[in-house]
Description:
Low-confidence stretches: 1-16, 139-155, 164-181
Number of helices: 9
Radius of gyration: 22 Å
Strand order of the largest sheet: 2-1-4-5-6-7
Shape: globular
Order of helices and strands: HEEEHHEEEEEHHEEEHEHEHEEH
Number of strands: 15
Distance between the termini: 43 Å
Strand content: 15-25%
Mean pLDDT: 79
Amino acid sequence: MSTTVEEIKKTEIGESKSPKLLLDSLEIKGYRCFEHLKIEKLGRVNLIVGKNNVGKTALLEALWVLVQGGDYQSIGQILQVILHSRNEIPETSESYLLEPQYNDSYKHLFYKRPNIKNENLSSTIGTFEREITIETFDILNGVKKEIQDNRRKRAVELSVTYKGAFDPVDFDINKYVKPIERTPVKNLFVRANGESSESIPELWDEITLTDKEDLVIDSLNLILNEIISINLIGYPKGSNNRIPVARSKRVSEPVPLKSFGEGMNRLLGIALALVNCKDGILLIDEIEIGLHYSVLPDVWKLIFKTAKDLNVQVFATTHSKDCVEAFAQIANENDEKDDGMLIRLERHGEKIVAKTINEDRLAQAVNHDVEVR
Length: 373
């Protein structure tokens, strides 16, 4: 079979290839349960599995921190949300500053949670092209003493350093300075408990009256093939609190989406996040929650196709064997080689290691009933 000049040119300039992945590998040192974790190869759609307490959610957190390309407030907000989600700090009214009395809580971000007042701590999350370092410093011992004189004295503070593709910058998330202008990687984190009542309307408003709205409705019909349209309305009437309602073939008036079951709300959150992450990173914790095993193959088919069409890189966790089997089935049917990657976290003594399994090996393992979770 001959190859045309046009095809050769397309291959040379990359037109015939899928867009380059934002993250093709990952290395984490000193963050939470990870002393030193290396993942040599990532796919477009990555499923993270492993037993309890091997760091599946921590891995998503590390990715979330890494792709923040915003100013110092965004880093502070992310770290605050991460700590609060695990009850390591109480919810605070401050938008991005960690309150002084909770400085000791920084230790939860570092390997083995050492005594933060006895030593300076550092964790690094990165790839070959970009890297972020989170570290503590003790201002009372003279480190960065220049900022002591005109600020509240604190025993410990936190700083963040970007290197590589993010452009080098070193800043202290607690300092009152003009935000550093930078463009973040588009990213969303769908937690195990679902999207918040505030985020659903924001995500919906971004795609309403577009083709993406149709895609979201199609995704809901994976569970109940009778949804005609959805919208968000104030509840109670006139309230700023907006809830999703659906018009179905069986009911003549709009019905709250949750009336159709928790799975509908879960799938709405995933679909909205997916279509709002064009050219970005989507993180989904415990993706199978609320979804019946019978719809999982169609959910993965939706994710693989949309991720390719919108150039989204997806990272999800699961405990479900049904979810892994559905992932393996759809990944193996996918045309693009190594688009689907299963990442298995294992604890070897005190060290956690990652094993990657591509779609070919995964399909063989599932066919032979080998445990891959």
